[in-house]
Specification:
Layout: H1 2-33, H2 35-46, E1 50-55, E2 58-63, E3 66-73, E4 76-83, E5 86-91, E6 94-98, E7 103-106, E8 113-118, E9 129-132, E10 135-136, E11 138-143, E12 146-153, E13 167-170, E14 176-179
Antiparallel strand pairs: 1-2, 2-3, 3-4, 4-5, 5-6, 7-8, 8-12, 9-10, 9-13, 11-12, 13-14
C-alpha cells in the first residue's frame, strides 16, 4: 500500500513539474519572439513605476529599463516613454512609436494635438529650448544621452495627424542648434 501511494504521488509531482516547466518555456518563447509587444502589454496592463524623479517639471519613472513621463490632456491621462532609442506615447490605451520622425498626434477627443519626438543626441548637452511651428515646446532630459520634447496644442497647428512639423532646437543664447 505504501509503495503504490509513493508511486501515485511521484507521478502526480512529475506531471505537475512538467506542466509548470512547459508553461515557463512557452512564456519565455513568446517573450523572445516579440519583446516590444511584451513591453507594450506590460506597460499597458500595469503602468507600475519606480525610481521616481523630477526632470524638467515632469515626474519621471523607470519601468523595465524604460523612462515614463505621465501627463494629462483635458483630464485624460497618458504617458510618454523612451526606450532603446524608440520614443513612444501612451494615451487612452493606445501606443505609438517614433524613432526619428516628429509627428502630430491628436488625442481621441480630437481637439488636442500632441507633438513629440527625440532630441538629437549630438545637441542634447547644449539644447535649452524647442519650438514647434514657431511655438514654444518643452525639453525633457531623460538621461545623460537621451532626451525628448513635447508640445501640447489646442488646434492651432495646421498639420494633419501623422504629418511632419517644423521643429527647431536652440541653446541658452537662442542660437539655432538643429532644425527638422
Amino acid at each position: 500500500m505504501l509503495t503504490s501511494t509513493k508511486i501515485f504521488y511521484g507521478l502526480l509531482g512529475t506531471f505537475l513539474l512538467g506542466f509548470i516547466l512547459l508553461a515557463l518555456l512557452e512564456t519565455a518563447a513568446l517573450s523572445a519572439d516579440s519583446p516590444d509587444e511584451a513591453f507594450s502589454q506590460f506597460a499597458e496592463d500595469n503602468m507600475l513605476f519606480d525610481d521616481k524623479k523630477q526632470v524638467g517639471g515632469y515626474e519621471i519613472h523607470t519601468v523595465d529599463d524604460a523612462l515614463f513621463i505621465p501627463f494629462e490632456v483635458e483630464g485624460r491621462s497618458g504617458a510618454a516613454f523612451f526606450r532603446d532609442g524608440i520614443f513612444g506615447l501612451r494615451h487612452d490605451s493606445s501606443f505609438m512609436y517614433q524613432e526619428d520622425v516628429f509627428t502630430v498626434r491628436k488625442d481621441q477627443a480630437g481637439d488636442t494635438e500632441i507633438v513629440h519626438g527625440p532630441v538629437p543626441p549630438e545637441i542634447l548637452e547644449d539644447v535649452e529650448s524647442v519650438t514647434v511651428q514657431g511655438q514654444e515646446g518643452r525639453i525633457v532630459r531623460l538621461s545623460d544621452d537621451a532626451g525628448m520634447f513635447t508640445f501640447l496644442d489646442n488646434g492651432t497647428l495646421a498639420e494633419e495627424e501623422g504629418e511632419p512639423v517644423q521643429v527647431r532646437f536652440y541653446n541658452s543664447e537662442r542660437e539655432l542648434l538643429y532644425k527638422k
